[in-house]
Design goal:
mainly beta, 8-stranded mixed beta sheet, 6-stranded mixed beta sheet
């Protein structure tokens, strides 16, 4: 703490910048006991989501109270007692300002790597905060997408001045050329660190961890997609959905998975058809999961890509086709063989007639 006496009057003019000796120019009738008590809290919901850039509004409140006054044994011999009592009463009224925080400055600090405070607006100031009053401070914070769920604290170091004592100026102060001065005020500087609680909501995160199967031109194939919950929250009554477009199609794009707990995997089976003329390549199919969160509200996962290869139809003969070809070949052989025998018999008959 530091302290300095300063001259003051009812109008708080420029004379408050002068330092003056205490003895011979001021007297101290009362000593007050009290000072500001600054508290901080988040306005609105202190529960934030991963990946957010949040406009954080912090309310600071001054709950300072005066614990009492002490009448000091001081007398000015040059003035009547009644006048001196009036001066003492007036000084006591001035002492009531001891709970007001002046020139308050506050900067928000994060001690965790998961929460970043925007540095350009990290310092906020309030000119005066009387007891019972509040002021709003605004900061921008960024929350990492990989932040674990749980409770966090941001630090809010604040420093301010407050009136520690008031002394009444005597008539001799005129010798200093300060004709309008009534009081000399002593201020102290206080530095303290407030704590601002935040929490990151407990929510699931769903990812595609495996895909098995492939598509074939002109055929329907079953593709298995495995989803995993990589975070702490439970995805209740989960429904997996794929979105396919021509040349692919499916009759059942939604598959029920049930509850998916932290670290748990569930596999969905989708039957997908490919057109005969579909281009042979890898197809990226969009997928998402709808679930019930811990507040009983419907939520959706982020869009997930499911990559599936499509292959060409194999060029091969079926057993039936081969059998038909063999039958045709045998039939042709029989026809040719019969034709040959007939020609030979005709030739033999012609030879006998010539003899």
């Amino acid at each position: 703490m530091t302290a300095f006496p300063a001259l003051g009057n009812d109008d708080d003019d420029d004379e408050t910048n002068f330092l003056i000796p205490e003895h011979g120019y001021t007297v101290d009738y009362y000593r007050s006991y009290g000072e500001p008590a600054i508290r901080a809290s988040v306005t609105g919901n202190p529960e934030l989501s991963r990946g957010d850039t949040a406009d954080l509004q912090i309310k600071i409140a001054n709950g300072g109270v005066i614990d009492g006054f002490q009448r000091l044994n001081v007398n000015q011999n040059k003035i009547p007692d009644s006048a001196e009592e009036a001066l003492a009463g007036a000084e006591m009224e001035e002492e009531k300002d001891c709970t007001t925080a002046k020139d308050l400055e506050a900067s928000l600090v994060s001690e965790t790597e998961y929460i970043e405070v925007e540095p350009t607006a990290s310092l906020q100031s309030v000119e005066e905060l009387e007891t019972g009053s509040t002021a709003n401070l605004r900061y921008t914070i960024k929350i990492d997408s990989d932040t674990p769920a749980g409770n966090y604290e941001l630090l809010l170091p604040v420093n301010y001045q407050y009136q520690a004592n008031v002394r009444t100026a005597t008539a001799d102060v005129i010798n200093l050329g300060l004709t309008e001065t009534k009081y000399a005020r002593e201020y102290k500087t206080k530095i303290e660190t407030l704590r601002v609680p935040l929490s990151i909501e407990n929510e699931p995160k769903l990812e595609v961890t495996g895909v098995s199967g492939n598509l074939v031109q002109g055929e329907s194939k079953v593709i298995e997609v495995t989803y995993k919950n990589t975070r702490e929250g439970i995805a209740k009554d989960a429904l997996a959905r794929i979105i396919v477009m021509s040349p692919l199609s499916t009759e059942k794009p939604i598959v029920r998975l049930g509850d998916i707990g932290p670290g748990e995997e569930k596999t969905a089976r989708f039957e997908i058809s490919a057109d005969q003329e579909a281009l042979v390549k890898n197809y990226g199919i969009n997928s998402e999961i709808k679930y019930i969160d811990e507040d009983g509200e419907s939520s959706f996962s982020e869009n997930m890509k499911v990559n599936i290869p499509l292959e060409a139809t194999e060029k091969k003969f079926s057993i039936t086709g081969v059998a038909i070809i063999l039958i045709i070949l045998i039939a042709l052989y029989q026809i040719v063989n019969v034709h040959r025998k007939r020609n030979k018999n005709n030739e033999n008959a012609s030879g006998d007639e010539n003899e």
